[in-house]
Amino acid sequence: MDELLARTGGFGWFQTHVGLALFALQASCAAVVMLPTYVSLSAQREWGTSSTTPMVQAFFAGQLVGFPLWGLAADRLGRKPTTNASLLLLATFSLLSFAATSPTSYAWLRLPVGLASGGAWIGQQTLGVEYCAPPYRILFYVISGLGWTAGEVYAVLLAWALSSAGWRTLLLLHLPVLPTLLLLHFLPETPRYLLQRGDAAGAMETIRRIARANGRPLDGKAALAAGVAADGGEGAEGWTRMLAQLLSPSVAPRLALVSAIWFGAAGSYYGVAFLKQDLSVFNPYVTTLLENAVELLSLLVLALIAEHRGRRACLALFFVLCAVGFIVLQVAQPQSTLELVFILIERTAASLVASLIWLVVAEVFPTSIRSVTLGLAAACGRAGCIVCPALTDGSFGGGFAVMAAITLCSAIGTLFLQEMTGAALSDTVSSL
């Protein structure tokens, strides 16, 4: 399959379309995820508090349940329909949350938002991996990461402009959903998924469509059909067979390892992502823009080194940098310039970790269970998202030290991962 995708032109017009769709999808998700921060700032007078912890924890609790369910749906029903359904539900539930009258009611209304968002995340990761040949997988992740940064910048600029207009005007943050749905509508199902469902003809037609869009029409129909059929021996998987695959000796230990690593990756990112409202010495909107500038730099670093130095080594290095940042934050004076500087440094390293972990996990599992394993591992990451912001919000004295220990353990765990840089993806468990 990877060889066939490479013959369609590598990264052409079709992959550009996919990249734009992933960019818009990440921008939509970023605006919705960061919404509680700006709602709490804008509604501070009305509600008497600017704390986002209950809102954030409710959202991640929803994702904790939603990720495995959407992952299972994506492997059984398809990448494209589950992504579209998730995005529609995400926008709907997020809009309904604006009916809240208090921080408590808003937090409860964020729960289904988190539940719905899981499919959008799972969908964009599997689409990015399955549409392109190995040399371009990191490029797709950088593009989607740029979408996340763009979504955060859009959110902070709009929230800043509307800060005196009432928090319900932040409904406008949902505008990126519209172009995202349009871009996703014109994408076909991924050929890898079609192949695993036993539709070799549909997979071949999608590959030809990609080739035509890239101006590289394929020749040799018989040879190509044989090449596709060779990858699709197992056909459709039933529920029982999927469970057996997840519990198999080649999958279960790997899933446990990446789940533990993801706990530290997601926790390190969101442990600092929501600190801006506590830096009362600084303008929180300016602080967010600085963080996004640093995050943009981190994506450029990721693009430059992850493909050449290897996923595993880069992930371990970024985790170590996270640990160093947390140690400094543990001893830095609160609301000091040093604290702000190291929050930005920590945000850089954590952003690299949070971006790369999705790619690593998507690559190490086969197509037949790629989405459900992503969902299960991401759910463990969301457990980290619930726990870690509570450790870093100042209510626990040694919280940053605990976070340093967690990220160091994650760094050690990455050394046991399979290196997938430039490697072909597996399509079945038997090929692991």
TrEMBL record:
GO terms for molecular function: transmembrane transporter activity. InterPro entries: MFS_dom (IPR020846), MFS_sugar_transport-like (IPR005828), MFS_trans_sf (IPR036259). The keyword Ion transport does not apply. Its main location: membrane. The keyword Transmembrane applies. GO terms for cellular component: membrane. The chain crosses the membrane at residues 12-35, 55-73, 85-101, 139-161, 251-272, 284-306, 313-332, 398-417. This is Major facilitator superfamily (MFS) profile domain-containing protein. It comes from Prymnesium parvum (Toxic golden alga).
